[in-house]
Specification:
- The chain has one domain: Porin (Beta Barrel), CATH 2.40.160.20.
- It has 2 helices and 8 strands; from the N terminus they run αββββββββα.
- Strands 1-2-3-4-5-6-7-8 form an 8-stranded antiparallel β-barrel.
- A hairpin with a 3-residue loop joins strand 7 and strand 8.
Length: 185
């Protein structure tokens, strides 16, 4: 039993080591209005990042959001850019062994466009805290409270949004990913 506990505690930290890869995405603002004329909204953000050192990952994201309702028009959000994550070590923050707090920040090209209305397109910046719960040593369910602001051009010079995102991430050993990519070539 002690050996099993030791193995689990070692693998709970192994996925955040230098050279590993994070692949997954977030879902936010998911709403299926079931009433007549109800609204539909959702935002999907796939992500990929590489751990450049223990607990620090850099990578990219793509964002697409859609909100629509009868007689209210359609709003489309989009974005593409770079992201960074810092995971607090379990000794920095007292949490369960399978849970890690992190901070995420991003910068890129983003936009908010409303049909028949305003738009803002330009530089998007976002940041916020998150919590990753590892259901297995390599798979985590995440929650992220993130502020995103867009500064640029259009009918409005700025747009901002605060969202609670739910995510699913897979943490893979970098050597395994590299081997699989080489097989495909």
């Amino acid at each position: 039993m002690a050996f099993g506990f030791l193995v689990v505690s070692f693998t709970a930290n192994a996925q955040l080591q230098k050279g590993n890869v994070l692949i997954g995405g977030d879902l936010a603002g998911f709403n299926l209005g079931l009433n007549e004329g109800g609204a539909f909204s959702m935002s999907l953000t796939p992500k990929a990042a590489w751990f450049i050192k223990d607990n620090v990952a850099l990578g990219g994201y793509v964002d697409f959001g859609l909100a629509t309702a009868k007689n209210a028009g359609t709003t489309v959000n989009y974005g593409v850019g770079g992201l960074g994550r810092y995971y607090f070590s379990s000794s920095d923050v007292a949490v369960a062994r399978s849970t890690r707090f992190f901070l995420e920040a991003n910068a890129g090209l983003q936009g908010v466009n409303v049909s028949g209305g305003g738009s803002t397109n330009g530089l998007g910046l976002g940041f916020g805290p998150g919590l990753a719960y590892f259901v297995t040593p390599n798979v985590a369910l995440e929650s992220l409270l993130k502020y995103t602001g867009v500064v640029g051009f259009g009918s409005s010079a700025t747009a901002s949004l605060l969202q609670l995102n739910l995510g699913f991430q897979i943490y893979l050993p970098g050597s395994r990913v590299k081997s699989e990519v080489q097989k495909l070539q």
